[in-house]
Amino acid sequence: MAAILSISDLRKSYDGGFEALKGVSLDIDEGEILALLGPNGAGKTTLISTVCGIISPTSGSVKVGGHCTLSDFRAARSLIGLVPQEINLEPFEKVINSVRFSRGLFGKPRNEALIEDILRKLSLWDKRNSQVKELSGGMKRRVLIAKALAHEPRVLFLDEPTAGVDVELRKDMWEVVRELKANGVTIILTTHYIEEAEAIADRVGVIANGEILLVKDKDELMTQLGQKQLCVHLSAPISDVPASLAAHALELNAEGDALIYTYDTRGERTGITSLLNDVAAAGLVLADVSTRQSSLEDIFVGLVSGDKA
Amino acid sequence: MNLTAIWSIYRFEMTRFFRTLFQSFLSPVLSTSLYFVVFGAAIGSRIDQVDGIDYGAFIVPGLIMLSVMTQSISNASFGIYFPKFIGTIYELLSAPVSFLEIVLGYVGAAATKALFIGVVILATSSLFVDLSIAHPMAMVLFLLLTCLSFALMGFIIGIWAKNFEQLQLVPLLVVTPLVFLGGSFYSISMLPPIWQKVTLFNPVVYLISGFRWSFFGTSDVPVGLSLLAIGGFTLACLCVIWWIFKTGWRIRE
Fold first, then answer.
1. Residue B41 needs a FRET pair 20 to 30 A away by CA distance; which of A12, A68, B77, B139 works?
2. Does the ipTM surpass 0.90?
């Protein structure tokens, strides 16, 4: 698939010498959902702001749909919608006027049917004549999304769209995101919630200290970097791991009734067969066996702390 | 040129104005009436004529200029500062609009509001004094140029300001004194000779003088010089805005 967003060697340094982006290069395919994970201050918002034109880059280039964001900014920006992290809205304006304004700003003629459709999908239609300041935090976030969608963007940036949003609303938003993807919109979202990336992303990028550490297909990432744990539940507790099982590097849980074996799914041999044979040979009786796949969160924490194993 | 965007910004700004139309209308009517009570009736009754014009009528152009200049600045500076303050400027910066289009939208709206207030003051004044306008076209031209140039200056202040105090600083400490000392309520020929020379360094003198000429056909400085001054001021503001646009100063930092 062709890249709709192409970022090459993007750098941003501030006057004090702080380098917020250290040569970021990233291609994003049309129609995909990329989740950008990173700790606070990693450069996620700076990256989005630079692509969208809010911050001038120090060097490097960004192309959206083949249009340079600096030399051909009108064509490039027309394709982009941005939902910022902060709830930045004119408090005294009516919801519908605020959304109409966003569409007008992008040079699009009035389209009341489209705006009604967006507001209905985001459950804002009943509130269309309310002033923004009268809405709850979650509703305001929906208004931000409605404003970003008002000009029918092809690429949508969602900067932590579900921060501080309750579970139900978060799931509603995921639904909106999936629907947009079904309509061919490319979505780049930053998030702190790993479950969010796990639930909706096609690819996951990890950014820390202004550098992209990795961009991978989510499932591939889970498989490649994912560690699995095998938990062998014993019918009777033991005080120590038997010496004959020392080679398997097992851990005994606090209650002494389960042995935990960590293995890498990338390995040619997982060592499970020999482990189970040795457990039986040691005279231990099994009550149950379970496995647990490590989550993206485990992978993320491992990467950011420099432990890439 | 993204005309739809300019119109959207203009309409959005004007909506804010219409939301508070009553205050927008009432406040200039009230302040003009007060000026006429104080300067026209109380003090003006002791002043015969200035340059052959009744004092009550003489102060009308100055009164209009005083309000138009301060309103243009405060409307435009607030108009662009408010999105910066509440964070909605992200939308302007990420939209396919050039800085020129942003300026046209905000400055156009600010100038329109000031023009409206100027017309309200003119109408209110005509209830108190007999007014005749000698050069109506020139009057409209001076009014439009003043609204435009001071709105441009207000826009620059709004970009420059980092807080509400700074937003008030220039209008309060620079513009108001210049307007009061610029011959709003007197002819500069009434000043001692040395101050007549000093006051020529005040650019507002040229604007008020030219505007008064359009009403009464008399002026403190040649009307051509007045036009040159307001043209030069507009140009200077445009240059600063062009520079802001080129560098992204205080916008895309």
1. B139
2. no
